[in-house]
Specification:
23% of the residues are buried. The chain is built from twelve helices and no strands. The protein has a domain of 65 residues. It is elongated and about 65 Å long. The protein is mostly helical. This is Putative transcription regulator mTERF family. Belongs to the mTERF family.
């Protein structure tokens, strides 16, 4: 398949089970990725290098059921999220959907969040979802609809991005929409905060402020 010796060593280092696999077990995996998951042939090495465990996963018992699950919830371009294919639906994917329902989202809204940001499936419930959601509700006092629209919130570090930026906003009496609060660069965030604190621009409760803030910053 064209893997170099260093690449093969890396694959085996990350997933030693590959060494115990038979060629007859691995060939169907490549076939599945190309024909069913619709991975381009030119992308196949990149896909395997990114997620070596794919080569140790059963097509019948793991890859195909996971593909069907992702497609069933509306993730059409699974070839862009192939690292999820080696995940167990029962042990990893479904519990994350259940968690979002548990904290107040409808099933429809929960699935919409995963469609918008499939990387959510990779985050730990205990070490990511729970502490960040608790901070979002208790300390930030925000509404669920903001998370529905911006599930990327869970991709940012609580200690290095979410908490310090929120605290700076609290200190200044400012409330930014989540994308402005978290996605902007440090310099841009600082400039935006300075502008708000030295002008009469309306803050949280103004539709004009939110609209202008999002469209202005995300275009830059």
């Amino acid at each position: 398949m064209g893997f170099s010796t260093p690449e093969f060593r890396r694959l085996v280092g990350m997933c030693p089970e590959i060494l115990a696999s038979r060629v007859s077990d691995i060939i169907p995996i490549f076939t599945f990725l190309l024909r069913e998951a619709r991975v381009n042939g030119s992308d196949l090495k990149r896909v395997i290098n990114r997620r070596p465990r794919l080569l140790a996963s059963s097509v019948k018992h793991r890859l195909r059921p996971t593909l069907y699950f992702l497609q069933s919830i509306g993730i059409a371009d699974v070839n862009k999220h192939t690292s999820l294919l080696s995940c167990s639906v029962e042990d990893k994917l479904q519990p994350r959907v259940d968690y979002l329902e548990k904290i107040g989202f409808s099933r429809r809204d929960a699935l919409a969040m995963f469609r918008r940001f499939p990387q959510l499936f990779c985050y730990s419930i205990e070490h990511n979802f729970e502490p960040k959601f608790n901070y979002f509700v208790v300390e930030m006092g925000r509404e669920l609809k903001e998370l529905k629209e911006f599930p990327h919130y869970f991709s940012f570090s609580l200690e290095n991005r979410i908490r310090p930026r929120h605290q700076r906003c609290v200190d200044k009496g400012v409330c930014f929409p989540l994308p402005i609060l978290l996605k902007t660069s440090e310099a841009r965030f600082r400039d935006r905060l300075e502008v708000c604190c030295n002008s009469s621009i309306p803050l949280r409760n103004s539709p004009l402020w939110c609209t202008n803030s999002i469209s202005g910053d995300l275009d830059k």
